[in-house]
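worker-03 picked up job from queue 'complexes'. Input manifest follows; two sequence lines, order preserved.
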Amino acid sequence: MKFSIQVNEGPYQHQSSDTAYQFTKAALEAGHEIFRVFFYHDGVNNGTRLTTPPQDDRNIVNRWSELAAEHELDLVVCVAAAQRRGIVDEGEMQRNGKDAENIAPGFRISGLGQLIEAGIQADRLVVFGD
Amino acid sequence: MSEIKKFLYVNRKAPYGTIYAWESLEVVLIGAAFDQDVTLAFVDDGVYQIVKGTDTAGIEMKNFSPTYTALGDYDIKKIYVEKESLEKRGLTVDDLLDLKWEDEDEDWAEKDSIHVVSSAELADIMDDADITLSF
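worker-03 finished. Artifact:
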């Protein structure tokens, strides 16, 4: 089956991004396809490489990046939600005159149309969040 | 992308206090450009999103209440409000925004977008949807 995943909550604050990751990983291991993972609301905070959790804790951001590299996952961060919360890639940095970017490897910033398309293209859209 | 799917947006949270309601509306507006079959549902505290007379001056937030009245212009004409959620909050349909859409096939006659439905009817609407986005 072809899944799309929507992650609506921030890392560490809420278990949703953990569960979304575990679901995505399990689906891939079971031979399913992940069309796209879309990060919305505070979920965009899963895409900053500046995250530095304690060493004895899981690194949620790196975990997504590694899964993306392994399975060529499309990790998309919503641009409107990202702008509000300071998640920035090279293009956004230049467009908005910022002095830094912080997007984690494997993530890209794009529009909400990518979420609608993810719903249209997949057999199931699974939403994680409150 | 010629395939048309039934998108159901379930709005469950109060309009202010968290950003879910506003960012849900942003998805609805962007999604309207995709020519899909769109339905909105308002349940629980989500019914407060479409209560009329909202004034946000005291909390220094943008009042996005007028955006709901524009939904008809985006061809969004199926808006379901759960009866039980209204009743529990002492609200009736008269407390809600007067949301309309214009029927092209009937000389642009204005029609009500809001339909009050029971919890059981809403369950059928959810069952019928291809994609349920819950906010």
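worker-03 released lock.
The domain at 2-128 of chain A is CATH 3.40.1260.10 (Hypothetical Protein Ychn; Chain: A,).
The interface with chain B takes residues 6, 8, 40-41, 80-81, 84, 111-113, 115-117, 119-121, 125, 127, 129-130 of chain A (CB under 8 Å).
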